[in-house]
C-alpha cells in the first residue's frame, strides 16, 4: 500500500549570497539561507558578526551590494520598509516604538490601520477602523486586559515590550522579524515572551526570524538557528545541532 506523501513546505524567505560592505569592511560576506512557512528561525553571533546589517537588508532599510532576497518567490531585494510591510512583513525594533500618550488598545489599532483598504474606506469605517476585535484578541492573548485602556507610557518597560511585539502582529503578517525581543526585559518575563511567540506561531502559522543575544531564549524558541561570525554563516541547524557543533562552541559559545 502506498503511503501518503509528506506535505511539501513552501519557502517564505530566501536569501542568496547577500553581501554588504562599508569601505574596506565587509559586514555581510555572501550569506545564504531559507526560512520555511511556519518556521521560527533564529540568528545568533557575537557583536560585529553582521547580524544587524543582514536584518536591515532584509527589512529594506539598507540596500545590499549584491545578492538577492526573495519573499514567497518574489524578488524584494530593492524594496523599502513600507513596500515590504504591505507585502506582509512585520517587525519589532531593539528600541521601543510605542506611542506613550496613547492607550495600549489604540497603539495596536494604529499599528494596523494603514492596511485597512483605501483612504476613502477608512474615512467611512468605524472609529477603530474595524480593528477593535483584532486588538482585543491580541490584548487577551498577551494578558494585557487590565492595562488595555492605560497609556502605554505609564507601563513598565517589560509591558511596553509586549505592546511593541503585539503591534507587529496586528496586520496579520506572513513574516515577522524580531530584533532582540528580550533586550532590557526582566529575566522573569523572558519565558512568557517565548510562550507568546510559540502560541502566535501555532495560531497564525506565520514565519519568524529572531535576532537575540539570550541563548536560552533562542534555543527554546527556534526550530532552526543560524550562527554568524565575521559576516559569514558558520552553521545552520536545529538547536541540538548548534549546541553540539564544535566550531560554534569554539567561535561563539566559548566552551
Give an overview in words.
It is a single chain. With 255 residues, the chain is α/β, with parallel strands linked by helices. It has two domains: 9-88 and 173-255, Rossmann fold; 98-172, no CATH class. Helix content is 35%, strand content 24%. It is built from ten helices and ten strands. The chain has helices at 51-58, 81-86, 104-113, 119-123, 132-141, 157-168, 187-204, 215-221, 239-243, 246-253, and strands spanning 11-22, 25-36, 40-44, 66-71, 74-75, 89-91, 175-179, 207-211, 224-229, 232-237. Helix 3 (104-113) crosses helix 5. It is globular and about 50 Å long. The termini are far apart. Residues 1-8 and 116-126 have low confidence and may be disordered.
Topology:
Layout: E1 11-22, E2 25-36, E3 40-44, H1 51-58, E4 66-71, E5 74-75, H2 81-86, E6 89-91, H3 104-113, H4 119-123, H5 132-141, H6 157-168, E7 175-179, H7 187-204, E8 207-211, H8 215-221, E9 224-229, E10 232-237, H9 239-243, H10 246-253
Parallel strand pairs: 3-8, 3-9, 6-7, 7-8
Antiparallel strand pairs: 1-2, 1-4, 4-5, 9-10
Amino acid at each position: 500500500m502506498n503511503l501518503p506523501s509528506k506535505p511539501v513546505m513552501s519557502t517564505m524567505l530566501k536569501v542568496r549570497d547577500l553581501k554588504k560592505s562599508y569601505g574596506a569592511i565587509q559586514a555581510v560576506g555572501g550569506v545564504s539561507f531559507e526560512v520555511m512557512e511556519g518556521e521560527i528561525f533564529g540568528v545568533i553571533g557575537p557583536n560585529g558578526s553582521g547580524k544587524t546589517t543582514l536584518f536591515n537588508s532584509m527589512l529594506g532599510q539598507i540596500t545590499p551590494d549584491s545578492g538577492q532576497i526573495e519573499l514567497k518567490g518574489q524578488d524584494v531585494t530593492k524594496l523599502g520598509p513600507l513596500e515590504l510591510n504591505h507585502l506582509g512583513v512585520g517587525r519589532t525594533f531593539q528600541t521601543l516604538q510605542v506611542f506613550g500618550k496613547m492607550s495600549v488598545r489604540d497603539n495596536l489599532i494604529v499599528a494596523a490601520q494603514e492596511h485597512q483598504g483605501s483612504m476613502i474606506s477608512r474615512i467611512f469605517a468605524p472609529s477603530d477602523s474595524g480593528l477593535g476585535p483584532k486588538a482585543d484578541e491580541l490584548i487577551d492573548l498577551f494578558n494585557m486586559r487590565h492595562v488595555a485602556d492605560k497609556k502605554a507610557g505609564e507601563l513598565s518597560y517589560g509591558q511596553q515590550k509586549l505592546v511593541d511585539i503585539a503591534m507587529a502582529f496586528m496586520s496579520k503578517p506572513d513574516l515577522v522579524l524580531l530584533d532582540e525581543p528580550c533586550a532590557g526585559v526582566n529575566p522573569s518575563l523572558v519565558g512568557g515572551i517565548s510562550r507568546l511567540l510559540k502560541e502566535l506561531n501555532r495560531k497564525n502559522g506565520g514565519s519568524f526570524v529572531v535576532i537575540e543575544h539570550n541563548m536560552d531564549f533562542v534555543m527554546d524558541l527556534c526550530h532552526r538557528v543560524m550562527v554568524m561570525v565575521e559576516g559569514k554563516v558558520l552553521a545552520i541547524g536545529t538547536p541540538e545541532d548548534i549546541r553540539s557543533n564544535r566550531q560554534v562552541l569554539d567561535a561563539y559559545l566559548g566552551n
